[in-house]
Amino acid sequence: MTYKNFSLGPNEDGLVTVIWDMPDRSMNVFTEEVLGEIEAMVDAFATDASVKGVVLTSGKAGSFTGGADLKMLRGMFDTFEAKRGENRDAAVAELFERCGEMGRIWRKLETSGKPYVAAINGTCMGGGFELALACHGRVAADSAKMGLPEVKVGIFPGAGGTQRVPRLTDTQSALQMLLKGETLSAAKAKSMKLIDEVVPADQLVEKAKDMLRAGLKPVKAWDEKGFKLPSGPVYSPAGAQVWPAVASLYRKETADNYPGARAIVKCVYEGLLLPIDQALKVEQRYFAEVLQTTEAAMMIRSLFVSMQALNKGARRPAGVPDRTPRRVGILGAGFMGAGIAYVAAKAGLDVVLIDRDQAAADKGKAHSASLMDGLVKKGRAKPAEAEAVLSRINATPDYAALADADLVIEAVFEDRAVKGEVTRKAAEAMKPDAIFASNTSTLPITSLADAFPEATRFIGIHFFSPVDKMMLTEIILGKETGDEALATALDFVRAIKKTPIVVNDTRGFFANRCVLRYMTEAYDMLVEGVPPAMIENAAKFAGMPVGPLALNDETAVDLSHRIMKATMRDEGEDAIDPRHFQLIDAMVTEDGRLGRKAGKGFYDYPEKPAKKHLWAGLKEKFPQQAPDAVDFAELKQRFLVTMALEAARTMEEGVVTDPREADVGSILGFGYAPYTGGTISYIDGMGVKAFVALCEKLEAKHGERFRPTPLLREMAERGESFYSRFGGEALAA
Ligand code: NAD
Fold first, then answer.
1. Does position 729 have pLDDT exceeding 60, yes or no?
2. What SUPFAM superfamilies does UniProt report for this protein, alphabetically (predicted)?
3. Residue 136 has what DSSP assignment?
4. Got the DSSP string for 464-512?
């Protein structure tokens, strides 16, 4: 029998090696066709007396599978949405059946009577790892990585993962791994007993065959009489030690915002009380339930489908040939320039790193040396790789070194005159078709382009700090920016493996405008006398990774002070709430509380190992409300609404033109509560009408900053969503 996605090695003494290698795909994924072929193979082997055992591996170098094609899940959503209007019960029943397909086939393999060994040659995620867990043995290459990351896109492992993991490893480790969606090294997976053997990649298949030759049983421990759970029964003294702590672990990880995570806890708890087949049914039920939640739909759309589309260049102008730069020049080797040099060199690009003198340029290069050193110490890079990265960075004060650069990125002081000067100097040295980009955070790109001979070759590439950790870049189009410049910027961002959003040129662009709202809402709460700890906790319970006051300390309180003063200078005194200015002005000029870098800001930063804590003096600045008098749920809403409203304004003004970019940009740029799917999906998820009503309620109580915009009112009246009006959904398909 032949298969499209699998090839079968010769039958060697009853052992067959199945190699999964999908044509026309760089990575193996599960599609309906792949599932059909696996089932056909399992059926064929089960009745073939000449087959004594099967090794499952992949033909893709360094990767077993990336997991399910989430587009398959989107297909399930769409069918469900289309059918549920007619007959909801029938639609739910169909969804339930389809949810169980993968799990049913894995169980069939597990109970087929033939022993299977998964030979995991590389990355093995999601449904692929669940397939491996259903096999009777698992061997992994020492470089392989594996895990069940589903919770990160709003769902959970629904093909046996929640049942087989806690039957192989202790309950606490199982829950930790499932709730965090952790990626495990082969060694860690072995220590958790999820993998039987770890070997060098070239010995993988042989080792798997050895296991079969040694008489691996085609029956799992949990299908045999007398099976004992690794942590003992749920209702036992051991269980009584584990389960009470689970609630706090779950709350800590999720703030109860993620239906997928909640379902994991329920599946493990209820499943461990039952035999495996019933337990798998429990998992299937919860999976079908979670798939119907808004959170799952929004997260899959933003964090998988849209992110992938943006990474693949959804906004790249068609028809411009590949412009991935080979050599990148960076002007300014400070905090940002040094970070950009590192990510570019790490991606294999040659870098010219320029500063005012050799010592300053060298200091910037030293940043890469220290980051690579850290990786080598942790065993995550080889010394030779560190050397190669550093050898690609030419640190110099000499602009002539820019002659071969395809792209030059400016990251000098945020000062128009300094930027103008370095732009002119670089332009003289650059080749005629090279592109110039500015990393400015506040200055309009269109006006900065005046210092460059051709505005069509000038663009903004706005990084976030720390550059090596933050996955987002904002590409800013000046009025005259041309397609070549945009294509170059996007090809560069793709090369350094970050996600781009493309925005039009306005003050604050997209992300910083929203973040500013987050921080100013916290100023309002402080002024109202909300206890600072409640402000920080409300933000975290709303799903934000960092409280607004802690974030303000990271970005520096004196920077907020400077931005406020510049805004008042440019847009008039009324542009800033005087109570906010008084607060920040006093923090900076009277109290010297400049943020984390000064060791004091909204928080105090005592010497380690002591932890930072909120500054006690903050409470004395404003008469404090009694905690019971504060509407905590409303604090959470205020944070999410104020940022979502700002995102809606950016779309109304045409700064952001595609809702996918506002969504992905808000999650990657400032950690906007991921379970919502992002700022715009937060609005669409509840419906524009409900959002407008919520804004009006908040406006009545807290003022006109919550007033719904004309566009929102119009959309509410017409029953539109952002995705239906602006077309992100259609583009994402
Ligand atoms: P920084 O002060 O750490 O670095 C600026 C560097 O530019 C310094 O090393 C300085 O020596 C160098 N420089 C100044 N004048 C120069 C000249 N004439 N020729 C060559 N080099 C010169 O500042 P930073 O935080 O890295 O910010 C740089 C730019 O990035 C600014 O435009 C800033 O707005 C923007 N930005 C900063 C952040 C952030 O979080 N810090 C985030 C995004 C964008």
1. no
2. 6-phosphogluconate dehydrogenase C-terminal domain-like, ClpP/crotonase, NAD(P)-binding Rossmann-fold domains
3. S
4. -SSTTT--EEEEEE-TT--HHHHHHHHHHHHHTT-EEEEEE--TTTTHH
Return the CATH number of 512-730, one of 1.10.10.60, 3.90.1440.10, 3.40.800.10, 1.10.1040.50.
1.10.1040.50
Q: Parallel, antiparallel, or unpaired for β 67-68 and 53-58? A: unpaired
> Could you give the CA distance from residue 8 to residue 16 in angstroms, rounded to a whole number?
7
pLDDT of res. 439? 97
Q: Are 643 and 514 in contact (CB under 8 A)?
A: yes
Residue 733: pLDDT over 60: no
Q: DSSP 3-state assignment of 353?
A: strand
Q: With CA atoms as reference, report the closest residue to 361 among 330, 333, 398.
A: 333
Ligand 1 neighbour 235 (Cβ under 6 A): no
pLDDT grade for 248, boundaries at 50, 70 and 90: confident
Active site residue ranges? 462
What residue type is assigned to position 603 of the chain? Y
Q: What is the pLDDT of residue 508?
A: 85
Locate the domains of the chain by residue range: 6-292, 327-507, 512-730
246 touches ligand 1 (CB under 6 Å): no
Nearest CA to ligand 1 atom 39: 465
What gap in Å lies between CA 681 and CA 388, rounded to an integer? 42
Q: Measured in angstroms, how far is the CA atom of residue 439 from the centroid of ligand 1?
A: 9
Q: Tell me, which fold does domain 6-292 have in CATH?
A: 2-enoyl-CoA Hydratase; Chain A, domain 1 (3.90.226)
For residue 732, the model assigns a pLDDT of 40
Nearest-Å Rg of the Cα atoms of the chain is 28
CATH fourth-level superfamily of 327-507: NAD(P)-binding Rossmann-like Domain (3.40.50.720)
